Amino acid sequence: GGHGAGIGGRNGDKNGSSCGNITIHGGSVAATGGDEAAGIGGGVFGSGGNITINGGNVTATGGQEAAGIGGGQGGSGGNITINGGSVAATGRVLAAGIGSGKGNGFDASGGKITINGGNVTATSEAFAAGIGGGQESSGGNITINGGTVTATGGPDGAGIGSGSHGSYDTITINGGSVTATGGDNGAGIGDGSGGSGGSFATG
Length: 203
Description:
The chain is mainly β.
C-alpha cells in the first residue's frame, strides 16, 4: 500500500534506496505495487535491489509509473535474474514490464536483467519497454540465455531496450525463444521513440 512495493521496498527517498534481496523459489505469487512503486522491487525512487526468480507462478504489476518487476518511479531495476517459472510482469504507463520505472529526472536504469529460463511475459502499458527502460531512463544491460520470452513495449517503447527518449547499454541474446514487439514508433529490439541507442548482439 501507499508508496511501497507489493514485495520489496517501502517509500524510498531521492537518493535511491534499495529493496534489498528478494528470492522466489516456487509457489504462486501475485504482487501489485502501491502508488509509483514496483510490483516486485523498489518503492517510489527505489531500486529493485537483487531479485531472483527460480520457479513458481509469478504475476507482478507496478503502480503508477513503476515497473512490474524492478524499479519504482525514478528507480533503477537493480539486478534481476529469472532462472525458471512462469513470470508475467506489467509496467504501468511510463514504466517497463521488467526493468526501470519512469526516469523522472533521476539516473534510473533497467539495471542488469538476465533471463536463463522460464516462461516470461513482460508488457508496458505505454512509453516504455517491455523489458528494459521506462520513459527517459536507460534500459541497462539485458541478457537472454534461454527460456521463452515475450516482450511487448507500449506506444513509443521498444519490446526489449529503451522507453521513449531513453537509451540502453547492451542487449545480448544467446539462446531461448524470444518474441519482442515494439509499440508504435518503437523497435522490437533496440530504441523507443527518440532513443539514443546502444549495443545489440546475438550469440
